[in-house]
Specification:
mainly alpha; 73% helix; 9 helices; 209 residues; globular
Length: 209
């Protein structure tokens, strides 16, 4: 039965689960730094993982994905278990949050664009939904732990999702296979995010008078 379930999964669903795991870890890792208990860390991880997708589904007129199957609750629990078991390695790494956040950002941006295409929406909607799916969970996470959301800082964050959306549609236009399209789009988001942080690339600050 389990083999049949895995066989029936499409690549986009696999990306969704990996992104959920990665984003949940980023939220749980940050919650641990704030000294949350296990339940509080789970809540932060879950909101981080499903927040963006929930907003996306509501805007697309769909039932939120995590309300239709419990697997996302289980994946978040697995992420919590991972942090608990390997906490001394994960928590001590200063770049853990950044690594898992970048991975989740790229994978979720792809999921958002893919769902918009499946619903028949045009390119501009797909790019916006991809950006929302990738970035909104991080905004909710940072709000819950009383931090300034990354999307509102100088760093390139949401724009990386926009880039991934354009790469996605460019690949479709060029006739690239769906699986390779999703991989290239996700990688473009992750690479853009990593390069922006490494080389301190950011947009100009809007200054007041």
């Amino acid at each position: 039965m389990h083999l049949k379930i895995l066989k029936d999964m499409d690549f986009l669903t696999i990306i969704d689960y990996i992104g959920t795991f990665a984003f949940a870890i980023s939220g749980i890792r940050l919650a641990s730094a704030k000294r949350f208990d296990w339940f509080g860390a789970y809540v932060v991880g879950f909101v981080t993982a499903v927040g963006g997708g929930t907003i996306r589904d509501l805007l697309l007129g769909l039932s939120p994905f995590w309300m239709q199957q419990s697997s996302y609750l289980i994946v978040t629990a697995a992420a919590l278990g991972f942090v608990i078991l390997f906490g001394k390695y994960v928590i001590r790494l200063n770049n853990t949050i950044f690594i898992f956040d970048a991975i989740g950002l790229g994978l979720f941006a792809v999921v958002g664009v893919g769902k918009s295409i499946d619903c028949g929406y045009p390119m501009w909607v797909g790019i916006i939904m991809g950006t929302l799916t990738g970035a909104a969970g991080g905004v909710l996470r940072d709000t819950l732990i009383n931090e300034v959301p990354l999307i509102f800082r100088k760093e390139i964050y949401a724009l990386a999702c926009v880039l991934g959306g354009f790469v996605y549609y460019l690949c479709l236009y060029l006739g690239v296979t769906p699986t390779l399209t999703q991989i290239l789009a996700a990688v473009s988001v992750i690479v853009a995010r990593v390069l922006a942080v490494k080389y301190h690339i950011s947009l100009p600050i809007l200054k007041g008078e």
